[in-house]
């Protein structure tokens, strides 16, 4: 759902840019509460994984494909505020280095793919986990539903923005029906990838799943007079079986493998937005990208003739750029939190 330049008029583009900037500013402050010694390194990995996964378009209908948006996944793994920053970093890297998503539409893309998906995904996830039985099955099911709902929600917001300032004379109802239908199918794929990823992390290090904290059952002692609560289990406590570093290294290798190798076999069909834009005539409004002549534009390395190698090298470079950019942001936020904590009297903590 990377919106290119030209789909929206200036007022909507500027307004979305201001909204996105304000949202990112709020999340920079909110992320200080989420980025602890485990979440901070995980956030950089999550951003890199989302970048890699977005290169893997999967078929959803005849002549149409979809790819992970990642907002719900990031919210469940590292928290909603940090999730917005993760996806925003990915979009910045894609826009400036890979000519994917318009630069004047950057505010629109951050609003749709980062803010809407993270907020909606997290809200649905918390609604289900708070109302359902505690346990891994509930967490995985909630992850699936949250991710599924977040994608058509982003499509709905796109339609609302198009109604406010779309540049093509297309009936809004027609855009809504087309966007909603195809992105509901894409949401199924998003839900599957999200549930699989969350389930995998839960199996290895459940304490690394932000959304799982506080979700274990309280420890009780059965007595003749009835159950007596002894104390809550602590999902926040690091698991003894595997350290954080192997998880990070393994996750980074998975991201590199996805972006550098598996991406070559991704569907070449247009994604949901591209398909709708082509069918409805909106694609005629697309403007040339300012970075279309860049060395990594189009997810290929200029000067490398072998298509497979060119795409693979570009994918690996993108993972590296995302890790550096995201890791830098999260390191600064974490460092400021530590500084603030050190200045706070122990009695006030």
UniProtKB/TrEMBL annotation:
Q: Where in the cell is it found?
A: Cell membrane
Gene Ontology BP, a term: transition metal ion transport
Instruction: Give me the segments passing through the membrane.
Output: 12-31, 43-60, 72-97, 103-125, 137-164, 184-204, 247-266, 312-333
Q: One Pfam match, by short name?
A: CbiM
Q: Is this entry keyworded tRNA-binding?
A: no
InterPro entries this protein is in? CbiM/NikMN, PDGLE_dom
Q: What is its main location?
A: membrane
**Aminoacyl-tRNA synthetase in keyword set:** no
Stated membrane topology is: Multi-pass membrane protein
This one is known as: Cobalt ABC transporter permease
- Ranges where the PDGLE domain occurs: 246-335
- GO annotation, cellular component aspect: plasma membrane
Question: What are the alphabetically sorted keywords of the record?
Answer: Cell membrane, Membrane, Transmembrane, Transmembrane helix, Transport
């Amino acid at each position: 759902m990377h919106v290119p330049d030209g789909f929206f008029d200036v007022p909507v583009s500027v307004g979305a840019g201001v909204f996105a900037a304000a949202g990112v500013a709020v999340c920079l402050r909110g992320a200080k509460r989420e980025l602890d010694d485990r979440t901070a390194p995980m956030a950089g990995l999550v951003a890199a994984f989302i970048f890699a996964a977005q290169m893997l378009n999967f078929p959803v209908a005849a002549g149409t494909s979809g790819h992970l948006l990642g907002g719900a996944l990031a919210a469940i793994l590292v928290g909603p505020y940090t999730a917005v920053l993760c996806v925003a970093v990915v979009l910045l890297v894609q826009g400036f280095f890979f000519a994917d998503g318009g630069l004047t539409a950057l505010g629109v893309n951050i609003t749709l793919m980062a803010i809407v998906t993270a907020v909606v995904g997290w809200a649905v996830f918390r609604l289900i986990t708070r109302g359902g039985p505690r346990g891994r099955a509930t967490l995985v099911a909630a992850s699936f539903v949250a991710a599924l709902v977040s994608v058509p929600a982003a499509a709905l917001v796109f339609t609302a923005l198009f109604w406010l300032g779309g540049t093509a004379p297309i009936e809004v109802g027609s855009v809504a029906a087309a966007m909603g239908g195809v992105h509901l199918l894409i949401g199924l794929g998003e839900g599957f990838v999200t549930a699989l990823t969350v389930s995998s992390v839960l199996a290895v290090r459940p304490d690394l799943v932000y959304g799982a904290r506080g979700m274990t059952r309280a420890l009780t002692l059965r007595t003749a007079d009835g159950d007596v609560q002894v104390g809550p289990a602590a999902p926040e406590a690091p698991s003894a079986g595997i350290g954080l570093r192997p998880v990070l290294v393994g996750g980074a290798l998975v991201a590199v493998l996805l972006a550098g190798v598996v991406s070559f076999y991704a569907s070449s069909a247009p994604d949901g937005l591209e398909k709708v834009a082509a069918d409805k005539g909106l694609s005629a409004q697309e403007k040339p990208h300012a970075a279309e002549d860049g060395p990594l534009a189009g997810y290929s390395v200029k000067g490398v003739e072998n298509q497979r190698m060119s795409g693979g090298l570009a994918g690996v470079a993108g993972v590296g750029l995302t890790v550096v950019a995201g890791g830098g942001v999260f390191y600064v936020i974490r460092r400021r939190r530590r500084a603030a904590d050190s200045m706070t009297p122990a009695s006030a903590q």
